[in-house]
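Reopening this ticket.

The earlier resolution said the output was attached, but the attachment link was broken on my side. Pasting everything inline this time so it's all in one place.
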Amino acid sequence: MLSYYVSRGEDWNEQKIREHFLAQDGIVIAKSGQVLGFSFYELKEKCIHIHTLQIASPYQNRTLGGRFFKWYRELASKTSSEVITCGVYESNAARYMYERIGFKEIGLVNGVVKMALTLTSTDLGLGARDLSPAVNVMLKGLG
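Inline output:
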């Protein structure tokens, strides 16, 4: 994420970033004590907004991103959410992963592509049970 800030000429303030994300709900996927990826999100009226989804380099372009989205779909089912939204830097290759799983571009603001996945009844119910053997851990407001 630092490289995206630098490429855009933005200041990197690690403390401010930590405070922002750790004030959100989140999920961590780990295996044998090693963090493979994490994501922080916010529930807003029938919507799940993903603030960040980070996957360790050795696990990128595999199945881990899909596992996060299966978990998000289960969360959507439990919370009666109708859409999942996120923003991704224009130059981030993960943008195409979002498109492959059904996200549509809904806007562009300062180099960030705003995306949304409208959920249907067939999207729901694919859940955390599919994460095995990874471990998911819910986090809230860690400091």
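Reporter confirms the inline version is readable. Confidence is low (pLDDT under 50) at residues 124-143. The CA atoms of residues 1 and 104 lie 22 Å apart.
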